[in-house]
Amino acid sequence: METAYNLIGAGLIVIGGGIGLGQIGGKAMEAIARQPEAAGKIQTAMIIIGALLEGLAFGALLLGKN
Amino acid sequence: MIFTAFATAQAQEHNGDYAFDDEIESDGGKVNTKEEIDSYIDHHLKDSHDFHLFSYSDDAGVRKHVGFSLPVIVWSSEGLKFFMSSKFHHDDDGKVLVNDGDATFTKLHSKIYELDKGAAAIKFDADHHPTNAHRVFDMSITKSVFGLLFIGLLMLLVFGALAKQYRTKKIPTGFGRVLEPLVLYVRDEIARPNIGETKYRKYMGYLLTVFFLIWISNLLGLTPFGFNITGQIAVTVCLALFTFIIVQFSGNKDYWMHIFWMPGVPVLMKIALIPIELIGLLTKPFSLLVRLFANITAGHVVVMGLIALMITLKAQFGIVGSTGLSIFLTLFLSVIELLVAFLQAFIFTMLSALFIGMAVAEHDHHEHAGADEDDVDEVRERFI
Q1: Which residue of A14, A52, A53, A63 is the best one to mutate when testing the B interface, meaning the one whose CB has the most B CBs within 10 A?
Q2: Residues A29, B35: Cα–Cα separation, whole Å
Q3: How far apart are CA A31 and CA A33, in angstroms?
Q4: What is the rounded radius of gyration, in angstroms, for the C-alpha atoms of chain B?
Q5: What distance in Å separates the CA atoms of residue B366 and residue B370, rounded to the nearest whole number?
Q6: Which positions, given as ranges, span the membrane (chain A) (predicted)?
Q7: Residue A13 backbone phi and psi in degrees, to 5
């Protein structure tokens, strides 16, 4: 039973992380389309936020695994 | 190149040893079922005491392993012991005992155990924990240690040569031309914008080291030698610890003020914010280490899972079909992993720079002006 809960939790984490990454990516695309000259800066900021989110999701996955 | 030559030489040298030891191998080291694939992947993710490139059965049906062994250095009850890991004959279940003086060692799940005095064979309790053996302080040159030493030597040679070139000429020649843009990339895209024009120089050494160390070790992980350096949590913990220590030691008055006495909020709020800020202090390096570790581990698991497709799908697609599918998918994922290798090095360095920048940031003080900045400009002029 515990494994089932763990798997459900892992699924929820992945859903949450996916929504977050989608939001970041989508908004960054919009921003780049609006201001193509700032693409570099937007991309860097996007990657940082993406990495922070990913770290959170991975952390939760690792904690949930045990 | 040197490494390849060295590896080949070593492999040839030890082929002979290994080929004759194999009556000990019971299952032959074959990987066919799902459980065997799982344990093979688990085994790959761990650090090991030897390089294992591949195995095959010869005409007589004897299983042969190709790889090369690494030195085992342990601190046991009998003092420091040193022997080659080929003495374990590829055993990983505590079956082979190695006698060195008065101490007896065995290898169990990639860990070296020392048997208690008088014990002739390792015994297990119900949970498969050894009852008559204990772990020893292991300082062996394992696969990851070997990889790290190799990267260290490589970086010392390559970047030392690059640095030396700047003494005599303004533009590097040879391989330095490849490296200079990378160094400038770290400086201009990572260090300068995050730490600030006046302070970034002090941290360039660390940022460059950590960037190239992570990048090269990630790339080494994609070679068939089976390195998994940044997939060892000990390595990433250590790297994150370095960042943590550097951030704490470069933190200025404002940095500590924001942790222990946040300006601009009511007193009650200041006290409530202290534990939150302290937790924030620790979660930063924690997320750094978990991100790198989990990304690399996940990449290795997926690549090995895709390689295993050629075994698991053999019944459905035939040998050629499953192998072709496996090669195609593995190639596809390896290309993504090339990107991930760079991205994770970039992210680790970028966030390290960001945290350092947060610690050294000045808040509306304008104490540093004039002479200080001129000095930095002058130094930079000379550097370029």
Answers
A1: A52
A2: 44
A3: 5
A4: 26
A5: 10
A6: 6-24, 45-64
A7: -60, -45
- pLDDT, tens digit (0-9, with 9 covering 90-100), for B237-293: 999 999 999 999 998 888 888 888 888 888 898 888 999 999 989 988 988 898 899
Cβ atoms of B114 and B103 closer than 8 Å: yes
Do the beta carbons of residue B350 and residue B194 sit within 8 Å?
yes
Residues 6+ apart with CB under 8 A from B132: B115, B116, B119, B122, B123
- Contact between B180 and B112 under an 8 Å Cβ cutoff? The reply is no
pLDDT at B366: 47
Does the pLDDT of residue B175 top 60, yes or no? yes
Q: Per the structure block, which two tokens stand in for B128? A: 């498969």
User: Are the C-beta atoms of residues B177 and B156 closer than 8 Å to each other?
Assistant: no
Query: In this predicted structure, what is the pLDDT of residue B379?
Result: 55
Say if the Cβ atoms of B290 and A58 lie within 8 Å: yes
Global ipTM: 0.73
Q: How many angstroms separate the CA atoms of B372 and B11, rounded?
A: 56
> How does residue B382 score in pLDDT terms, banded at 50, 70 and 90?
low
Nearest CB to B291 within list A44, A47, A51: A51
Right CATH for A2-65 from 1.10.287.3510, 1.20.20.10, 3.40.50.1370, 3.40.50.620: 1.20.20.10
Contact state of B295 with A58 under an 8 Å Cβ cutoff: yes
Domain segments of chain A as ranges: 2-65
Q: Which positions in chain A touch B287 (Cβ < 8 Å)?
A: 52, 55-56, 59
Tell me which residue in A48, A54, A58 faces B350 most closely, judged by beta carbons.
A48
Cα B306 to Cα A36, A56, B37, B38, B40, distances in angstroms: 38, 26, 11, 12, 13
Query: Which segments of chain B does DSSP mark as H helices, in order?
Result: 2-20, 34-45, 143-168, 176-185, 192-195, 201-220, 233-250, 253-260, 267-312, 314-360, 371-383
How many other C-beta atoms are found inside a 10 Å radius of the C-beta of residue B175?
Answer: 11
- Beta carbons of A62 and B288 less than 8 Å apart: no
The tally of CA atoms less than 13 A away on the side-chain side of residue A50 is 20
> Could you give the 3-state DSSP secondary structure of residue B366?
coil
> pLDDT-derived band of residue B117, with 50, 70 and 90 as boundaries?
confident
- Tens of pLDDT, residue by residue over B42-64, are 888 888 888 877 777 777 777 77
Tell me the three state secondary structure of residue B148. Answer: helix
CA distance B295 to B288: 11
